[in-house]
Amino acid sequence: MTLDRSWFTEPMESTGTAFSLKAEKVHEEQTPYQKIEIFKTETFGWLMTIDGCTMVSTRDNFLYHEMMSHPALNSHPNPKNVVIVGGGDCGTLREVLRHPEVASATQVEIDERVTRLAEQYFPELCEKNADPRATLFFGDGIQWMKDAKPGSIDLIIIDSTDPVGPAEGLFGKKFYLDCIKALGPDGMLVQQSESPLLHLGLIKEMHQAMREAGFVQTHLLHFPQVIYPSGWWSASIACKKAGPLASRLDEAAIAALDAQFYNADTHRAAFALPTYVRKALGA
Ligand code: SAM
Hints:
By secondary structure, this protein is α/β, with parallel strands linked by helices. It has nine helices and twelve strands. The chain folds into two domains: 4-57, Spermidine synthase, tetramerisation domain (Spermidine Synthase, Chain: A, domain 2, Roll), CATH 2.30.140.10; 61-281, Vaccinia Virus protein VP39 (Rossmann fold), CATH 3.40.50. The chain is globular, with a radius of gyration of 18 Å. The structure holds S-adenosylmethionine. S-adenosylmethionine is lined by residues 33, 50, 55, 64, 85-89, 108-111, 114, 140-142, 159-161, 166-167, 170, 192. The site of S-adenosylmethionine has 24 residues, from β6, β7 and α4.
């Protein structure tokens, strides 16, 4: 019996929905950027929230972290230099570094406290932080991208919070122009793009802004994500180059990733779009 425990609830006024977990708060702090809270849940392990929004839980983070990294990495012909914008819990960095073809992975997180708390409550996500290929940089991803050496990056992964507060500028044409400049000729960007059920308007706007910035093609992929609004999430890929995405789905290489959700079938399935989404994106 755990009736003494309370519930964490994330209400979404704009969609008339809410998500709850039975949980007790164990930590709360206001950083210069945002309010971070840690909860001990009854069935999902640890939960981190930022400004009241769910970010990462022990139980279901593998879905998001694997699908933010492996489909894009295996769609690029030769991803050597990877930059993660945001991603302070380090779970995406861990997945990226499972790929032997990646020579360097730089995580650019604005709020160092997210990473310090992840080290404490989600140590399994931080297990590759000491990999010699990893660099942890703490600063604003928008400025970092402005200053990046032109043509120096193969894949940019934007693992940010929702498009409000410090992440707002990561969702527009201005930022995508800086990304294009920083990317090499085969360069690609993948960005978390919210729920295909609740936020289709935002996804459309993102794809439009990516194309207006000069990316010649955009793709949506989708996957389950229990703790995010609607339980169904997406990522958007933008490519500098025309032509089909690479599909490096070698069974042995995928088995070596030791992933829990990702495999060749879930890779292909993630790019299969529902009819209404196809219509909305003109895909
Ligand atoms: N998986 C999560 C989601 O979709 O809700 C995102 C998790 S990750 C913890 C998001 C990170 O993006 C946060 O740690 C936040 O500090 C970081 N972030 C937000 N704006 C940023 C910016 N402008 N530059 C770098 N990092 C930023």
